Amino acid sequence: MRNPAPIILSLLLAAVAAFLILRKPDPEPEPPQAEPTVSEPAESTDPIEPSEPSPEPPSQGITAEVTPREWPQADSDLPVDENAVFGHLDNGMRYVIYPNSEPPNRVSLRLHIDAGSLMEEEDQRGVAHFLEHMVFNGSKNFTPDELIPRMQRLGIAFGAHVNAYTSFNETVYMLDLPDLSDEMLNLGFTVMRDFGDGALLKPEEIDKERGVILSEKTSRDSVGYRLMEQQFSTLIPDSLITKRFPIGTEEVIRTAPRERFADFYEKYYTPARMTFVVVGDISPEDAKTRIEKAFASLTNPQVPGDDPDLGAIETTDGFEALIFSDKEVASTDLGLLSIEEFEPLPDTRENRLSKLPLMMAHSILGLRFSEIAKEEGSPILGGSASRQDLFREMTIGSVDVSVADDRWEDAVPVLEQEFRRALEFGFTRAEIAEIKANILNTYEQAVRTKDTRRSDGIATGFVRTINEERVLTSPETDLELVSSALENITSETCHEALKSFWNDKGVKLILTAKEEPENGKEQLTKLYEASKETEVTAPEESELKSFAYTDFGEAGTITSQEEAEDLGITRLVLSNGVAVNLKPTDFDKDRILVQARIGNGGLTQPTDKPGIGDFATAVIEGGGIGEHSSDDLRQILAGKNVSFGFSVQEDYFSLAGETTPDDILLQLQTMTAQLLFPGYRPEAVNQFRKTVPMIFQQLKHTTAGPMQQMGGWLRGNDPRFTFPDTPEVLLAYEPADIKEWIERDFTNGTLELNIVGDFKPDEILPHVLATFGAIDKRPEASELDQALRQVEFPKAPTTKKYEFETKIPQGQAVVIWKTPGPRNNQKEFRRLNLLGEIFGDRLREEIREKLGAAYSPQAGAGGSTALEDFGYLIALNTSTPEAIPQLTEVCVNLASQLAKEGATEDELERARKPLLADMEKTLRDNNYWMRSVLSGSHEDPEKLELCRNRQEDVESITLEELNKLAATYLVPENAIQVVIIPEVTEEEE
Predict the structure, then answer these.
(1) Among 109, 111, 112, which residue's Cα sits nearest to residue 180?
(2) How many angstroms from the chain centroid is the CA of residue 342?
(3) What domains can you pick out in the chain, each with its CATH number?
(4) Structure confidence at residue 504 as a pLDDT band (50, 70, 90)
(5) What distance, in Å, lies between the first and last C-alpha atoms of the chain?
(6) What one-character DSSP code corresponds to residue 540?
(7) Which DSSP helix (H) or strand (E) runs through 423?
(8) Of 417, 471, 574, 820, which is least surrounded by CB within 10 A?
(9) Cα–Cα dist 686/623, whole Å
């Protein structure tokens, strides 16, 4: 269920998260992402020489003396993580090295620049982000066409392993190296150094990239972004933040000369503003030596750029009602907001822990909104409360609710009174105990899992602490701090924290809606003031219920067992027919994934009930289990590592969760109870119905609607894979509509239990036998009518056009080529997947790099493992509606060229090497073993063999094989062209 974020906060975070301008998203579509042959890589890589002479990058002038920035621990009593090695170079550049062996033989590099769009001048708006692109387009050691192919040949995928983003106050470059060879490390450190001061900023390359940036601006345009601009301008009108969104202005993107780029680069890409992060399976000595070699010669300019004056942040005073509206907004939201200037404090033990009681108070308030939302007739979907420090410039307090059915008038008293109830009466002991248990468990788990944290996650986490000026403390220190603090936190201290933060503060009551009501501000104010006259009462203490499902009858036994010793997998069949796959691993400490794969799922969905799978998911997930509502379970499981979710997959139902060795029995008990006693509670039905208008609003005004329609069309408009045309269909569904379908498989369907993670089989087997082993007899094989696996793919060649209602000038060009699917055809599908990677790279070179017509061209192979012969190659581009015909034509022509002339050996290797690097990494990923190997392996034992031979098979793929596939499928007469564009209204005509 959607948990709405604070109104202004959600938009601010959109600016620094979703609108952190990524150079290129991961290239793999979900589903859906002739050039001259690239010369072979040079033999010498130390140092890496440019393949052709290049002009020098912008000069940074005479170096200035600098005093290195202090690390935050200099002003703190908090101990730093003893495994971290901190240092700085004479030029002021800081670095931190953190040895970490998971995954083995890999290292993650991050270069943090303490500069973003806030540092731009008025005639540079967008240059900081534009620069982030330009460092990839020609540097001291790499020509514009050389860097990405050089990386690919070493197994580094553009987007997946190398990426970057620009925010308001930082620019970050990220590079994950798939091995620790000298060639790889030399490349990585040379690339990062070139990012720092080696960009050539050739005028012709800047001009070529302008179209890419404009396309990115188009692809990121949305109603949410436009509302964000409105809210910034209204709430902090005198702040520079409102005038420095990272994407910039179209005028600057189109016309800014090289000098503006060079000026920003010289002033702000300076070692005094840089922090380099190295995390991985590398010794601190080796890393330090390489950092010094790569970066010691960086110089600071004589006159570096200054930190900007961000302008005034006006503290919220008194009460004011505000309304923001747009007919395309997905949901109606209501919130109370307070803004004040940020008070800079060092990251000390006292200051860090002082925030904990307020955080707990806000969390409880969010849970209360969640409970109110489930009440019959409630006008809200949920809510939240928070305090956030942003850009070390302002502190924002926010209490918000998401409104159901646009009933904002009814939601105002809910928001006001529940917030006031907390301010007047505080919190119950049970509420405090629940939050304490969850917080403590989180920190305990961080300690237990410390040794198997992934290097890329640690590196990215370190980067987040830099601008926040937080000390890098260890999980053990964090646990000690929190444990000691929680001992002294009571309902009274949380109540005092809430009052201290919110009492005597002015607030803005903000409504975000599709339309601004007539006299809306006056109505809001009147409703709010009237609500304040209503008396509120103290919350009642509640008693914690005991878990009701610990005995499922006589435990089962094992009737057959076999070992796949080379894969470390134990395969069992229990006395009741339940199949079990166990895969113990040691690369995710104290974590266990559990999945029950049940019956035939979506294949047997009633054909007269389109979209009922979404209803079923909401009701089963939100309905709790027999004796316990979802809120009961939340309280019972507080402090435990038990999670569970339900989903309708194409050919099975899934109950899945994550747990620990200590809680595996409770996890299995909970899942077994959910299987035997699904809740079907009215509150789950009501919550789903509240979301239906939001779902249809999004389908109506975004490309999600046409994409959903296209998915159904590709499957012959089979009702099992389509969505209702009107909300009334979904709103009419009742639990009785899903009971027969769900319970047929829940009680009599095949059942495969898969467990992957940190466990010992002999220790958990008794728990398996006492839970899933104790249920009624199950068939060992499905009796599914195989006709249900058939759908009719559209005949090619053909074209299809979809329209949607929006003022956002954004469309999509999609081209699809039918291929065999992955079902019982994985070997060929691997080759189609590799062909898709080659095709996607050609799209990138032609559409993005040459034409600048789309920001993120995507291509890949897709299909279904449930449906027979359902597969395709797909190309997808997002751009302006005017560009869609050209993009469609380019995709068809590039595919035709690939079919006619074939790929090159170099293209094959540049696609294969990153794939092999990722395959090696997935061998230490529990999710890979669960999803790709174990799940469904009793029905299809070939999945084990596919796992065994996948690397050898991929290495054996020949150019002849791929070119034959291209010649077979990527010909123009096989192309299905889909155009998705905004609907042209009469006014626009």
Answers:
(1) 109
(2) 29
(3) 58-295 (3.30.830.10), 319-531 (3.30.830.10), 558-788 (3.30.830.10), 795-982 (3.30.830.10)
(4) confident
(5) 40
(6) P
(7) helix 408-425
(8) 417
(9) 10
φ/ψ (deg, to 5) at 765? -60, -40
Mean pLDDT, rounded, for 252-269: 97
Q: Strands, E, within 132-212: which ranges?
A: 162-166, 171-177
- Please give the order of strands across the beta sheet that includes 858-863: 798-804, 975-982, 811-819, 871-879, 858-863
Check whether 989 has a pLDDT greater than 50. no
Residue for token digits 């964090």? Answer: 478
Residues whose CB is less than 8 angstroms from the CB of residue 759 and which lie 6 or more positions away in sequence, other chains included: 582, 584, 592, 661, 664
Rg of the chain over CA atoms, in angstroms?
29
Q: Checking DSSP bridges between strand 94-99 and strand 274-280, what pairing results, if any?
A: parallel
Rounded distance between C-alpha atoms, residue 334 and residue 507, angstroms = 13
DSSP 760: -
CB 98 within 8 A of CB 85: yes
Classified as helix, coil or strand, 451 is helix
Cβ–Cβ < 8 Å for 174, 163: yes
> For 902-969, where are the alpha helices, taking DSSP H only?
905-922, 926-928, 942-956, 959-969
Bridge partners of 653? Answer: 598, 648
Measured CA to CA, the distance from residue 450 to residue 259 in angstroms comes to 47
The strand pairing partners of 347, in sequence order, are none
CA dist 288 and 273 (Å) reads 19
State the Cα angle at 862 between 179 and 908, rounded to 5°. 45
Question: 937: which 2 tokens?
Answer: 């392996």
Tell me how far apart the alpha carbons of residues 123 and 249 are, in angstroms, rounded to a whole number: 9
Cα 694 from Cα 701, distance rounded (Å): 11
Instruction: Return the pLDDT at 123.
Output: 97
Cα–Cα distance for residue pair 816/877, rounded to 1 Å: 12
Rounded distance between C-alpha atoms, residue 228 and residue 232, angstroms? 6
**Cβ neighbours of residue 262 closer than 8 Å, sequence gap 6 or more:** 58, 201
Cα 506 to the center of its chain, rounded Å: 35
CA distance 231 to 242: 9
Closest by CA position to 305, among listed 275, 272, 257, 278? 272
- Res. 24 pLDDT band, cuts 50 70 90: very low
Look up residue 914 and give its two tokens.
Answer: 């990153």
Q: pLDDT grade, residue 68 (50/70/90)?
A: confident
Sheet with 171-177, side-by-side order of all strands: 85-88, 94-99, 274-280, 107-113, 171-177, 162-166
- b/e string for 197-230 if b means 16 or more Cβ within 10 A? bbbbbbeebbebbbbbbbbbbbbbbbbbbbbbeb
Question: Of all helices (H) and strands (E), which one includes residue 401?
Answer: strand 394-403
Q: Is residue 909 within 8 Å of residue 962, measured between CB atoms?
A: no
Cα–Cα distance for residue pair 617/646, rounded to 1 Å = 6
Lowest mean pLDDT among 19-33, 398-412, 702-716, 749-763: 19-33
- Which residue carries 């359902």 as its tokens? 870
Give me the torsion for CA of 275, 281, 284, 286, rounded to 10°.
-100
CA 354/CA 411 separation, integer angstroms: 32
Residue 833 DSSP one-character state: H
Provide DSSP, 701-748. Answer: HSTHHHHHHHHHHHTTT-GGG---SSHHHHHT--THHHHHHHHHHHHH
Token readout for 655 is 């109950």
Name residues whose C-beta falls within 8 Å of residue 350's C-beta, 6 or more positions apart in sequence. Answer: none
